[in-house]
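Quick illustration for those who missed Monday's session on complexes.
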Amino acid sequence: MQPSRYHLALRSLHWVCAVLLIIGLVMGTFVLDKTPNSSPEKINALRGHMIFGVLILVLTVIRLIVRLRSTHPKPVFTGIALADRFAPLMHWGLYTLIFVIAVSGIGIAALTGLPEIVFAGDGILPTDFKDLPPRAVHGVVAKLLMLAIALHVIAALFHQFVRKDRLLSRMGFGK
Ligand code: HEM
Ligand code: HEM
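Prediction with protoporphyrin IX containing FE bound:
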């Protein structure tokens, strides 16, 4: 039988990852990207960002495994054909964007020896990261992820308050 809401682990990971991702996107855009590599603050900003990013990646891998191994509630339809077809694509799209942003971040780190510089104090930062292909991917995917999250939240609120189908309870913890 299909449950009325997602697996407890999936619900917990959804909200923990949502908070971590929003903090990662905001700090990446407004702090990390705005701090020049010559600034003494940069290493600390990078350290926090890298730990956050890798944590998000690990939690997303666990989440994907739980998602693939658990049963989910049956899909909720809005009656709007395009939106109904788009919903599962959007969920898999969100997973894909999270993987691409994390892996491209690791790509920037690998190309510039960031783990040694940031965590062992061994070496110096490049003048900036802008010319690196994974850096370009990271920046574009950050914008796409913000857009996808905004659409996802609008869709969830539309279900909850316009369709009044209690969609949020499928991801919630109440009775
Ligand atoms: C900020 C980053 C967010 C990401 C990356 C995200 C991602 C996802 C994904 C991938 C799913 C599919 C189920 C799963 O595999 O866990 C999902 C479901 C859901 N999300 Fe989010 N979410 C985010 C934030 C939010 C927010 C802020 C809300 C509430 C306004 C929300 C409400 C929901 C609801 C209600 C579902 C269940 C949809 C259904 O039953 O079909 N999400 N989310
Ligand atoms: C998984 C979640 C992650 C998110 C949401 C995220 C988000 C961001 C954002 C929004 C930016 C600024 C992009 C821009 O405005 O163009 C950024 C830059 C950056 N991120 Fe991430 N990131 C993540 C993971 C990682 C990881 C795992 C690493 C490395 C291990 C990393 C390393 C970097 C670096 C080196 C920059 C460039 C900073 C600069 O150009 O000065 N990121 N990230």
